[in-house]
Amino acid sequence: MHIRLATSQDKSLWDAFVDNHSEGATPYCRFAWREAVEQSYGHKPQYLLAEEDQKILGIMPLFIFKIPILGSSLVSLPFCDVGGVIATNPDVKAALLAESFSMAKKQKVKSLVIRSTQNDLQEDCFDDWYVTVQKEKVRMLLNLPSSSDELWSSFKSKLRSQIRKAEKNGLTFRWGSMEDLPCFYKVFSRNMHDLGSPVHSKEWIEKIFVNYGESARMGLVFKEDQPVGCGIILFTKCTVSIPWASTLREFNRLSPNMLLYWNFLKYAADNEKKLFDFGRSTLNEGTYRFKKQWGANPGPLFWYKVSSSAKNQQTQSKVKESTKREKLANFWGKIPLQMANFLGPKVRKYISL
Fold it and tell me: Could you give the domains of the chain?
């Protein structure tokens, strides 16, 4: 077995491996994520590939994530919930982890961040480096039936009535294209500003569509001619993930999010997808309950941080961290929208999650 850095020539074989490996293989693991991150934000990819007799046995997507003044980390993967190793057997997985650790030491980064769905990263793999893991977040996952009719029948009557309510309120759904990016970004940036969060650049969204091609779709919800909801789905052969969905607050009483998610789920079920990943949530909070009503169940997330220094592993209490985030969100939400849209992408580039 040989481990090396993947190149652009490996894209088709890399994606085929992701498509045919169900455990831990999400759309974020596709080669398109590497291309979009590098092209829009300039972070350097270090995608590891394990092979034998020209056959891929495992992959480990990584980025050197540089933050001015604060230094660099190796991250798998930035801007999403899940990265980590995908391998055909434990030996290949161990070898890829060892190579990642070796790379972290050679690059002299402060930490190695691995966002995984597996609780099998052993501390003794990393010599005298320090390992911590966050387990507070979960992925909300829905196993899909073979058709949208069957999915609709599985919903409770209250859920079906909420979807119909959106249509009765005069909302319409349609699929978008690159020409609809201004409509998407108008809703997306407004929602991020309302949440007090720096928004991704418009170029980032564009590069996602350019590189994912037919493995990405944009959905839009309108009230007459005004866009009031938007979202993006990415997919592998079997799995659909929804990295971003937004609605305008003043229209939420009309249930645009119900119409948006129903059409995404309908598409997934009717196109032979097996799993719908609603994304991360905190147990029993609002987004968790919203996703739970569709029949989704929590799947664990294990976010590891491997650091060369115990000091780098020290964190504030959850209460202090929460208070700090709340203050920053309140501050950002008070910035004028136009200024937030200008500054947001410059800041968002350096926020890995």
Answer: 2-138+301-314 (3.40.630.30), 145-273 (3.40.630.30)
